[in-house]
Design brief:
heterodimer; A: alpha+beta; BirA Bifunctional Protein, domain 2; 15 helices; globular; B: alpha/beta; D-Maltodextrin-Binding Protein, domain 2; 2 domains; 7 helices
């Protein structure tokens, strides 16, 4: 049995590494009002967080993470560059993996700084990498930003691109839509003409808040989607190649540089990838061995939209990741009500690092 | 003493009595109908416990009941990892109900989950909040929609008269059990063509956590022998 006291000590040691950078130490409330989390994560968060009720605020959640409240606070106060670190417990319901803990320590780090995002990416990665030295890990990295840029540069309608971007984090639905848009699978059910709709509508009682106008608009959308030409198969091929890309970082980079000649829309994000590798190399990371996956980070229920990474145990394959992190620029914008600042963060699991160091008491 | 949970109310109870007696086991409710207890004719050491069908899953999983009759829908909604907690002995062939997703019939642009997802995006954009689905089957609905990749919805709790939730302005869609679909129609709702979450019927379950003494095992085996199909 791992002793809680030992985990606390391990957490303190890890936190000390983060605090030594001069980052501001922050604490957050255990109880968070549900609305914000629900708005950002959707209904799925209710399956992952412990929910309770307050007579005044209504539904509240035991904090499932620190990042959202930290971003909220930062965006409410100012948007000047800042570095934060925290150390504390988070709470998660475990339905899918009943053997995983319901409460565990997290030690995390957040960088709000737009001066040089590639450098900040490398900074946080190296910070985590150094903190985990001595533990045998397998590292995965990816870049959701490249994926999003590739989708955005498809030569098709804005509506289609928006639909695909909305489902970047739901690979299966993304695939269904991509197949429909590229003519690989049949389109949805036959479309009723919006003009004839007035005749249909008489047969039904109108109930609920979704109104007739909205239905007419959607019928119109379905019609124009029907009439839009499929996405060019060469472009779909490029997207598929990026999605299935899996190689060491430098090989992946040179491949993506070639791809960006055919798809200039991704050039900026690929260039950013190159810069990040340079900074990582400067920090002493062996990028020749660093894996890159085009689809990495898509299935985590997260808000990452750029660089993403995860550290996994080499010896305990079924363990949750020891550390994860990523860039979440769009999140600051959504929560900043007009203001925005590029941001990247990472989180460590001291219970797992302790387990893997093998010095827990029995 | 074997403890057997029986639904305490209505048609479900009557049909359960009939089903057992067709298999040569006569359930007897205690003299006073108000007492929620009973026994089996001719078999000693079986105690009948009359409970709400929705409480039987919890009692089975805690091991306080050895056996219990309830619907597959409540078992799956209430018990995480239900197949590690209970074992179905026999399907009883009544209490059929489908857990489905339904939307207003006048939504002629919506027939499938694909449509529901697209409409959820549109609705959130237009109204500034997530499309609400009323249900009491929170877990089953959430898992189903997560697997289907439907986003931008929220669940609102509805413990009864769920079919009326849309008309009453509490939700835009519902997830509920239906057997004939008549109530749905009467409430101006239609079922999504791929919106079947679960097919349920009354089922006799055996608890996997209850303790069985040697004597209790013998009675249990006798019961299972008579009742298995």
């Amino acid at each position: 049995m791992t002793v809680l006291k030992d985990i606390s000590l391990e957490a303190k040691n890890l936190a000390a590494i983060f605090e030594a950078t001069g980052a501001e130490v922050v604490e957050m409330d255990f109880l968070q009002i549900s609305n914000l989390l629900l708005d950002l994560y959707g209904e799925d968060i209710r399956g992952r967080a412990f929910i309770t009720n307050d007579p005044v605020y209504g539904e509240m959640m035991l904090r499932p993470d620190f990042t959202i409240p930290i971003v909220e606070q930062h965006m409410a106060n100012n948007v000047s560059p800042a570095r934060y670190t925290y150390c504390g417990k988070v709470f998660r319901r475990q339905e899918e993996f009943p053997d995983r803990p319901r409460e565990f320590m997290q030690v995390g780090y957040e960088i709000f700084d737009g001066a040089n995002p590639a450098k900040a990416d490398a900074e946080i990665f190296s910070l985590v990498n150094d903190a985990l030295s001595g533990i045998k890990v397998r590292i995965s990295t990816g870049d959701i930003g490249i994926l999003m840029a590739a989708v955005s540069s498809l030569s098709t309608t804005e509506t289609r691109k928006k639909s695909l971007l909305r489902h970047i984090w739901r690979p299966q639905r993304f695939r269904t839509l991509l197949n429909q848009f590229s003519g690989l699978s049949s389109k949805p059910h036959p479309i009723k003409d919006a003009k004839d709709y007035n005749k249909i509508i008489d047969k039904f009682e109108i109930i609920g808040s979704r109104n007739v106008q909205e239905i007419k608009e959607r019928l119109q959308q379905l019609k124009s989607e029907h009439e839009t030409a499929p996405i060019d198969s060469a472009e779909v091929k490029i997207l598929d190649d990026i999605l299935s890309l899996k190689d060491t970082s430098k090989v992946a980079l040179s491949y993506l540089e070639k791809v960006s000649k055919k798809m200039p829309g991704i050039e900026k994000t690929v260039d950013n990838f190159a810069k990040r590798l340079d900074f990582l190399e400067n920090n002493g990371v062996n990028v020749d061995l660093l894996d890159f996956e085009g689809s990495y980070g898509r299935t985590s229920m997260e808000y990452y939209d750029g660089f993403v990474f995860g550290f996994y145990s080499e010896t305990h394959k079924d363990l949750a990741p020891v550390a994860t992190g990523g860039r979440y620029d769009a999140l600051t914008e959504r929560m900043g009500q007009g203001k925005r600042i590029p941001a990247v963060g990472a989180v460590l699991r001291p219970d797992l690092t302790l387990l893997l160091r093998g010095n827990e008491h029995d | 003493m074997i403890r057997l949970g029986i639904p305490s109310k209505g048609r479900l109870m009557g049909q359960t009595f009939d089903w057992f007696s067709e298999r040569g086991i006569n359930l007897v409710r205690s003299e006073s109908d108000r007492e929620y207890a009973g026994h089996i004719e001719g078999i000693k050491n079986v105690q009948l416990i009359f409970l709400s069908a929705s409480e039987i899953p919890r009692e089975l999983s805690s091991g306080r009941l050895h056996f219990g009759v309830t619907g597959t829908d409540v078992i799956q909604e209430k018990l995480v990892g239900f197949n590690r907690l209970v074992d179905p002995v026999s399907e009883l062939g009544f209490g059929f109900a489908d857990l489905i997703i339904a939307v207003p019939s006048f939504w002629v642009d919506v027939e499938t989950l694909d449509d529901l997802d697209a409409v959820a995006a549109q609705f959130r954009y237009k109204h500034g909040y997530r499309l609400r689905i009323a249900t009491k089957y929170h877990r089953l609905l959430r898992e189903f929609l997560m697997k289907a990749g439907v986003a931008d919805y929220q669940i609102v709790d509805s413990q009864g008269a769920t079919e009326g939730a849309v008309k009453n302005g509490l939700a835009e869609a519902i997830a509920d059990i239906t057997s004939t679909g008549n109530t749905l129609k009467a409430n101006h709702l239609k079922i999504l063509s791929d919106g079947l979450i679960l097919k349920s019927q009354a089922t006799l379950f055996k608890s996997l956590s209850a303790e069985f003494s040697q004597e209790e095992s013998q009675i249990a085996n006798l019961l299972i022998e008579k009742l298995s199909t």
